[in-house]
Design goal:
The complex is a heterodimer of chains A (495) and B (431). Chain A has 495 residues and is an alpha+beta fold. Helix content of chain A is 56%, strand content 9%. Chain A has a 4-stranded antiparallel β-sheet with strand order 3-4-5-6, with helices on one face. In chain A, strand 5 and strand 6 form a beta hairpin. In chain A, helix 4 crosses helix 5. Chain B has 431 residues and is an alpha/beta fold. Chain B folds into 3 domains: 165 residues, Ubiquitin-like (UB roll) (Roll), CATH 3.10.20.600; 154 residues, NADH-ubiquinone oxidoreductase 51kDa subunit (Rossmann fold, 3-Layer(aba) Sandwich), CATH 3.40.50.11540; 67 residues, no CATH class. Helix content of chain B is 28%, strand content 22%. Chain B contains 14 helices and 17 strands. In chain B, the strands form 4 sheets. A 6-stranded mixed β-sheet of chain B has the order 1-14-13-17-15-16, with helices on both faces. The longest helix of chain B is centred in the C-terminal third of the chain and has 17 residues.
């Protein structure tokens, strides 16, 4: 009989750190499966293979680095890995990069995260910074160009809106802009290309709720972080007169939800008190919004996490004491930080300006004009047929059918006439504009007449005027002139 | 409990079904019993008998003689064999009066008669003192002393929460000695000059609530307060906050409430009706390490080994034996220690080896500390030997409820770290 001595209490919860990490891994793998499904359906198997290659490389580098480290520390390698969980960092890192990322940057990013940010700091539980965050930052600084989204998978929603200066006021522009992600609900469901695992805010939210219920993460961090982003962006929206889409965009697009659930909640790099974690989350929310709206980088999630990680020990010192006695201090500091954040965002909000998007001028194919044709000179030949005529304010719009090159040459069996719409000022009997509706003549030759260089010549002409024909398309040009003449004749006759 | 502090409590698995419904086992006193000369942390006792004296059931054999007066009574008749130092449930070697049981159970009367109807407040308090009534919930604090407070008391709160896992002795006492409970709380109301009695019972104990509700019907000043099944609901601070939403600095009297354990009230009731001190005790013996878990009714001074043998012995070669519940009780390396008037449980479990790992800094311990402390920060400060920080973190407010160790996912002995910090702080204060 052996009576074992043990300090009390002798009873312990069943939940262990190993279980926490397994559930976290499960959550991350759900995101991986979602992304695999997306890339399989939309882009094909090659992309899925690349995704899993990224995962394989990252996890191998992470596990191998720690195994070698454990070997040199003369520790039991398997036991060391079982209580160090290197794969979690690797998976998170892969989910943060675009699918177009080559294999070598992910290997280097993972290596840096594991060896420098974790092992050199003392291993699991001793790192100061979020490991995947460090890996992502290293990749961003070192291989910026290599891991940018490619042409197929296009830009992430956050960099797209950053290019517009965040402020999109024009309703049509906004609609086209949001349409590329399937609208705000599209952003929520995440069926669009972006960083591999960051797109589906809904999926990540559901996983987050599951993990919070399972006590894997503290609900305070995602709730206060997302809450801060929502309130601050709603404030900017109110100042700028933007709609509810703006705060929703800030929550659903980009890495905020992913960071909130999988990175910011990393307990090792959090303050340990509940009040501290609230301050930490609000602070991260403020920094995220500042970087998004004012920084040089479109996305602020990773940097805000790393900056707040740095402040964790300070926050811990700040909340030290008897919590019941310090309740008031906690509430005051949380309120103060929120107000400071709101003020900062107010200043930013007032200064935000939409980036003027220069609409590229539609390209005008080069044509040259040759010999002049007088309008009345054309009258003698084939008459145009008036198809319709209607009054539109000061003007009369006449649609004329006129025989072009193909009909006139007689060499084409089923040749059809051209159609020209002429707008004529009813009182002055001068041409307002000429639009070529249909050109049935030879492609790239006859069609050259549909060009402002040629058509603009008709402006303000009456039946006595003349225009220069398009070189190489004289007959088609002539048909347009005849149509205009016929239209003028029609309007004059109708008077 | 709040968003910025944390839940300050947690539901933990109770295993109470092991001993709630089966028979209570009456255990006869063994050949020799040992009356421990200890109350709380004090061992200052005047022994009133000497070797060779014949004693009866209820003979006053010793009395605590420092700033509190607590008499001890013999549960058997027999001959005093002397005084022996043996390991006590508090893990300290303590003097015990050894009495050889003659199994005649001849009794005497050492407590005066109290007419509860006519007695004044001071007379009842004096009675509680000479009857040796102490807090039966595990602490053993002299009950009479609590009522000497000058504060105005409005409510006597009877604590029938019993939040430690495994323990059901209060439950079984309330169920079996309901009339004594009523006599006890009427006496307490008198001591407190209070107008109301509230009986706190966990919501989950539906049967008991119904039963007590029926029994207290004739007493309109008494009512039941149902509380959540969380740990440590039985702690005064947690309980008073749960029911009245009030916090106090030192004692509940500050918010006009006085709290007593249900078994304490029963002991007081029995002292009044039967004129006998606390010489018998209901003890829960439970866990997967004992063959037949049960509540036992035993004489004070009976060794744990005797009780364990009567319940079929251990189930395993490698067991953990706790004097008390698994959360706050002390792990014993022997089963030779004896039952005191305020021992409420023996928890016996098969030893489980759990590997601990590095602190994850998850702060779960901070969120759950019912005292509102920051256990992981106290542990860090203790490891860094930063005495000023330990003081700033108010480590001395820890009641060692064990919840921080319980919730730790890395299986660290967080409570033990806080205990060490408390010792560091006590040394500094002493210096």
């Amino acid at each position: 009989m052996k009576l074992q001595f043990k300090v009390s209490p002798t009873m312990k919860t069943r939940q262990s750190t190993q279980q926490i990490m397994m559930l976290l891994t499960l959550g991350l793998m759900s995101v991986v499966l979602f992304s695999s499904a997306f890339y399989f359906v939309e882009y094909g198997m090659n992309y899925v293979v690349h995704l899993w290659s990224l995962l394989a490389v990252a996890v191998s580098v992470a596990v191998a680095s720690e195994a070698v480290w454990a070997y040199f520390l003369k520790k039991d390698i398997v036991k060391y890995l079982k209580t160090s969980f290197p794969w979690v960092t690797a998976i998170i890192l892969v989910l943060m990069v675009p699918i177009s990322t080559p294999l070598y940057p992910i290997a280097i990013g993972t290596f840096f995260a594991i060896v420098v940010a974790k092992l050199m700091f003392g291993g699991f539980g001793h790192n100061v910074f979020n490991l995947a965050g460090v890996g992502r930052a290293v990749m961003l600084f070192s291989f910026g160009a290599a891991i940018m989204p490619d042409l197929v998978t296009s830009a992430t929603p956050i960099s797209s809106i950053a290019n517009l200066g965040w402020v999109v006021k024009d309703a049509v522009q906004l609609e086209t802009f949001l349409a590329q992600f399937g609208g705000i609900s599209g952003l929520l469901f995440g069926w669009y290309p972006g960083a591999i695992g960051e797109t589906s805010a809904l999926l990540i939210m559901v996983i987050g709720i599951f993990l919070a219920v399972k006590n894997v993460l503290d609900w305070r961090i995602p709730v206060f972080y997302m809450g801060t982003i929502f309130v601050l962006s709603a404030l900017v929206a109110a100042i700028q007169g933007l709609g509810i889409w703006f705060p929703l965009y800030n929550i659903f697009a980009g890495g905020a939800m992913f960071g909130a659930v999988f990175m910011l909640t990393d307990p090792v790099t959090n303050p340990t008190s509940a009040s501290g974690r609230i301050l930490f989350a609000i602070g991260a929310g403020i920094i995220t919004m500042l970087i998004r709206l004012q920084g040089n980088y479109p996305e602020g999630v990773v940097f805000s996490i790393l900056i707040m990680n740095m402040l964790s020990p300070m926050i811990d010192r700040f909340t030290d004491g008897w919590q019941l006695e310090l309740s008031k201090k906690y509430v005051t500091s949380i309120a103060t930080l929120s107000v400071v954040g709101a003020l900062l965002m107010g200043v930013v909000g007032f200064n935000l300006q939409a980036v003027a998007i220069e609409e590229p001028e539609p390209e005008v194919p080069d044509i040259t004009l040759s010999s002049p044709i007088a309008l009345d000179q054309s009258a003698s030949a084939t008459q145009g047929v008036i198809l319709s005529s209607s009054v539109d304010g000061d003007a009369t719009v006449v649609l004329v059918e006129i025989n072009g090159y193909k009909v006139l040459s007689g060499e084409y069996d089923d040749a059809l006439p051209n159609k020209v719409e002429v707008r004529i000022n009813t009182s002055t009997l001068k041409v307002v504009s000429v639009t070529v509706v249909e050109v049935k003549d030879t492609n790239n030759i006859g069609t050259k007449v549909d060009n402002p260089i040629f058509l603009d010549q008709f402006k303000d002409l009456d039946q006595t005027g003349s225009v220069d024909a398009v070189s190489g398309a004289t007959v088609t040009s002539l048909s347009v002139v005849r149509a205009v003449y016929a239209a003028l004749e029609h309007v004059k006759g109708g008077e | 409990m709040s968003v910025w502090i944390g839940s300050m409590q947690k539901h933990i698995e109770g295993f109470k079904e092991l001993t709630t419904y089966n028979d209570i086992v009456n255990i006869a006193a063994p050949k020799e019993i040992y009356i421990p000369l200890i109350n709380g942390v004090s061992t200052a006792f005047e022994v009133l008998v000497k070797e060779g004296d014949r004693v009866f059931v209820n003979t006053k054999v010793a009395v605590r003689n420092d700033r509190f007066e607590v008499p001890l009574f013999s549960p058997v008749s027999g001959v005093v064999k002397g005084i022996k130092k043996i390991m006590h449930a508090s893990l300290k070697p303590v003097d015990h009066i050894v009495i050889e049981n003659d199994e005649l159970y001849e009794s005497t009367i050492s407590i005066p008669h109290l007419d509860l109807e006519k007695a004044t407040k001071d007379e009842v308090i004096e009675f509680a003192k000479v009857a040796g009534i102490v807090g039966m919930g595990g602490a053993g604090f002299p009950t009479y002393f609590k009522y000497l407070t000058p504060a105005t008391l409005k409510v006597v709160l009877i604590n029938g929460v019993e939040c430690e896992p495994y323990i059901t002795s209060d439950y079984r006492m309330m169920e079996n000695y309901t009339q004594d409970l009523i006599t006890g709380f009427i006496a307490m109301m008198k001591m407190a000059n209070a107008q109301e009695v509230h009986i706190a019972i966990k919501k989950s104990k539906k049967k008991l609530i119904k039963y007590i509700q029926e029994a207290i019907k004739p007493y309109p000043f008494a009512s039941i307060k149902e509380v959540d099944d969380v740990y440590p609901m039985g702690w005064e601070r947690t309980l008073v906050y749960a029911i009245y939403k009030k916090r106090y600095v030192k004692i509940p009297c500050e918010v006009n409430v006085i709290v007593n354990n249900a078994t304490t009230a029963i002991a007081l009731g029995q002292a009044i009706t039967k004129q006998m001190g606390p010489t018998m005790k209901m003890v829960t013996v439970s866990g997967n390490g004992i063959k037949n878990p049960a509540n036992v009714f035993v004489p004070v001074g009976t060794p744990a080994s005797h009780i364990i043998a009567q319940l079929g012995g251990y189930t395993d070669e490698n067991i953990t034996l706790v004097a008390g519940g698994p959360m706050m009780g002390k792990t014993m390396t022997t089963d030779a220690w004896v039952i005191t008037p305020y021992t409420n449980a023996i928890t016996i479990t098969k030893t489980e080896q759990v590997d601990s790992m590095t602190c994850l800094r998850c702060g779960t311990c901070n969120d759950h500390c019912p005292a509102g402390l920051l256990p992981v920060r106290i542990n860090n400060a203790e490891q860094a030997k930063n005495v000023d920080l330990i003081a700033q973190l108010n480590a001395d407010l820890c009641i060692e409820c064990g919840l921080c160790t319980y919730v730790c996912p890395s299986k660290l002995e967080v409570t033990e770290g806080v205990r060490r910090a408390k010792r560091v702080l006590a040394l500094k204060k002493g210096a």
